[in-house]
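Researcher: Structure for this, please.
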Amino acid sequence: MKHLFALLLALFTFSVNAKCANELYVFTGKVATQDSAPIADALVAVAWNETVRGRTLERTTRTDSTGQYSIEVPFYPWSGTKRGTDSCDAKLAEVAALVVAPGFVEEQAELPVNGLQTTANYSLKRTAAERLR
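Model: Predicted structure, token format:
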């Protein structure tokens, strides 16, 4: 009986959490040098915490030949059950971003999220070794 109760509780919890659809946030922008030249093939990564499932998630991409990037971030908005109904009003508030390119100093930033579409541009400094060339 104890095992049956645990199984039913697990199924109920899963069904409650499964009712909210993921929201898709999109981060776009450009990675360039300090003198505005695009940096192709730079690695751009974003990480965020998913509080309901208690994990940190990450997405990465590379810039195109014009330095542009786009990353889609699925976020699960379930924020709890109130009076027997699901509440799907959690919002993604902030992500950690990392930009890496050979010959440049990596850049890290905390990005506030501005709705479902956020633009963040980066201007990377050349490394000391690269400046001496």
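Researcher: Any notable elements?
Model: DSSP finds two helices and ten strands in the chain. The chain has one domain: 21-131.
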